[in-house]
Structures are given as structure tokens and as C-alpha cells.
Amino acid sequence: MTASPMLWLSSAGQRLSLATNHQTHEFAALWLRERAPDADTLDPRTGQRLIEAAELPLDLAVESAERAGDHVKLRFSDGHVTDFSLQDLLAACHRADTIVPGRTLWDSRLEEPPRANFAAALQDDAALLAMLEELHRTGFVLVSDVPTQEDGMQALIDRIGPLRHTNWGGIADVKSVANAYDLTMTQRGLEPHTDNPYRDPIPGYIWLHCLTNAADGGDNTLVDGYQAALALKQRSPEAFECLTRIAPSFLYHDDTTRLEGEGPLIELDSHGRVARVRFSNRTERVDALPADELEHYYAARQAFYRLITSDELTLHLKLEPGQMLIMDNYRLLHGRRAYQLSGGIRHLRQGYVDRDSTASRRLVLRQQLSAHQRQEVSA
């Protein structure tokens, strides 16, 4: 922001322009009125809107805009007066990011995985916030010193939770079993994938806890799906566009459950930014679209597959007993190498925690700890 941002009205007051040293932002008068931060418009406790925005006159205008330090005072044609901070106005502006904000991209050159300690995150809010911030930023975190009991990760989930229950229960085994109901429960290698795209909502975060891992092979693979999507966009814009447009179905069924969902392999948010990736070769089903459209889709999917299986983007690690991976299932593609039980047992446990509760915990902790730090400074 410049020392003195410029303000002016246009379109008979139905537009407010704010110019900084970087660019000019334009705000609609109706948007400013319904987003007014005062207690007559927003409930001070809940932040929920008190006025009926749909009843505001469509020709509502800003009659005056006056700069006062780092705030701007607005008077509207309905007589309402409010005060915005310039920082809040600029923070609300649409940004031309290519991925959802606040993320750090990575590939196989990532030297050190983000780490957290189980006991520290369990006992200390600052350590828990650091873990959640890293998970949000990087898409995964490797947690050490998790109790090697079957539900050893439950206590930390309860600090964030709740645990998502599915037809498989809560925390479930990931090990080779006879008559496996899912290929995860076999010894075969698994291609990079996201979990459960056939559910609604799709599980937000995967918690994968290692109890023992003495089998030969079975190393985990991780790929940053955002990085892969942007690499595809750069190298083949047509393939990228195709995978954001065509939405295959994803199916799962067993004796007691039938699940079906759909969505594009690369999903954009309302601003055109990459927000989610899906990939599940085992469960994907594409409709019988026109042949030429399917040809484009298959070529685009193959190009994306070659990226997510490439040495360029793939990170390898083998979980040890007492380690746990927490993974963003909207972003990360994970897989594993095939393994043989001749070397010993491979037993992992897995659970899901949804996105809303995880984001809420992070944001509340951030607010609480920031307020506490301000109090300490002013004391």
C-alpha cells in the first residue's frame, strides 16, 4: 500500500476505486454496503449479517468516501454510514493466484519433510498450531513418537477432530488380509491416488499411523497435486483445460455399501485457482462421451498420470513404527511400492478427519495465540 492510497467514486457512486502503488481495485457499492463491518450490519458476537442483503436497492450508491488515516469512511444513499479499514478492503480483493493462497509447492527435491512431535502437539497449543500451519502450507506433515497402540493417534485427533466414521469404521487397519474388500488391503503396489473420491464429502485429511513396518518394500510415495496440475497447465494448457472440464464418476461397492461421486481430476475454485485434485484409477468411470471428446480426455489424463508418477515430482519415504503421516486429501496424491511379507509384518492404521474442523482449529488457535502475544507485549 502506498502512504496515501487514492479514492474516487464513479458510475454515479455505484463504484468505489482504491488505487495503491501496485494496482487499482474497484468495489461495488452494494458489496460495500452488505459487507459493512459495523454493529448495525453485522452482529458483533457472531459476525453474521443482520440486514437482509437481497432487499437493498439495486441502485444504492456511495454518496461520499473520506480517507481517515488507515480507514475510509463511507456514506451510502440509504443513509447508512460505516468505516472500513484499508487493509481489510485490500485483503478482500480478488487475487490472480494460480492455486488457493497460503500454499508452498514442492517436488522430489524437497530436502526435509515438514515434521511435528506427537507429545508436543498434544500438550502445547503453539506446537499444535505449528503442525496445522505446516499441514495447511505444505499439504502433509510427518509426526514422530506416536504411541504404537492400535488407536495411538486418537488423542491427537481429539485435539482437532472429530474422527470421520465411514463404512470401514473409525480408525481402520491397513494391512494385507485374505479376501480383501479394497486393494489397499493387499500387497500390491498402489499408484498415486487420492482417497475416496466416491464419498460426499470427500475426506479432507488422511491420518496414516505406522505400528510396524518390517516387510520388504512398502515405501510410501507422495506427490504435490497442485505442483503437478500447474506443471500440466504450463506444458499442455489444452490438457489442463480438459481435466478441469470433464468430470468422471467414481464408484465403490461391497456387500453393504454403494457409493458414487463425481468431479474433475483438477478442480478450480470460483476464481479459477487450482483448489482440489482427484485421481483414483481403481474407482474412476468415464461416461460414454462423444469419441473425440474422450480422445482428448484420455490423452490429458495420460499426461497428468505421467507427471504424478514421474521421478521429478515423487517423494519417497518409509514410515517407521511410531511415525504418522497426515495428508491433505484435496491436494496430495499418495501411493506405495509393492511389498513382501517374508521380511516381516507391515501394519498401519488409518483414519480421516474432515476439512472444516481442521481449518477451524487452526484459525481459532491462530487467533487465540495472537491475542495472547498482544497481551504479553502490552503488559
Automatic annotation (TrEMBL):
Transmembrane segments: none annotated. Residues 115-352 form the TauD/TfdA-like domain. Residues 13-87 form the Gamma-butyrobetaine hydroxylase-like N-terminal domain. Pfam families: GBBH-like_N, TauD. SUPFAM superfamilies: Clavaminate synthase-like (SSF51197). InterPro entries: AlphaKG_dependent_hydroxylases, GBBH-like_N, GBBH-like_N_sf, TauD-like_sf, TauD/TfdA-like. It comes from the Bacteria. Belongs to the gamma-BBH/TMLD family. This is TauD/TfdA family dioxygenase. It comes from Halomonas binhaiensis.
